[in-house]
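User: My collaborator sent over this chain with a note saying "see what the structure looks like." That's all I know about it. Can you take a look?
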Amino acid sequence: MKLEGQGPGLFNAGGGTIELLEDAVVIQKKNTDMSGTGFLDMAINLATSTKGGYTAAYESIHSVNISEGGFMSPPFIQILTAGEKSISSSEDAAKTPSCLLFKKAVLGQFRALKAEIEGRMADAKRKPAPPAAPPSSLADELTKLAALLTAGHLTQAEFDQQKAQLLSRA
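Assistant: Without extra context I'll predict from the sequence alone. Here is the result:
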């Protein structure tokens, strides 16, 4: 699942894409670094380039927050992992790698995305129990002891002692 997030204004500053991979969420934001460029360069930069992506594995995500925005501020989604602070303003969200701004018209799609991420978080945190080791038979244990004796890792006395213990448990 992949959604496009668009920031406010002509050049969608703070926007980009958010994509759900099998094991992680990836946010790819539009580059908003406009230092040392002219207006035309800024426009091209904002419209076409992206910053390095932000990736968070589902098991490392603590929460997913959606701010619905306000009259003059766009909504945004934030993926929170350990050590990250919750963002409350769209201005801060535009600068934060773990946030993506989007238009209010697609709020429903981002709510569905949030629910999907939370489901994948729960699945990732539910680790399957390791399979139980098959019980070894008395014959298997005696064979292992004999191999240790043959390899010289046990003396005859140690072998006899371990063998007696195994036979007493049977």
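A starting point for your reply to your collaborator: Helices lie at 39-48, 90-95, 107-125, 138-150, 156-169.
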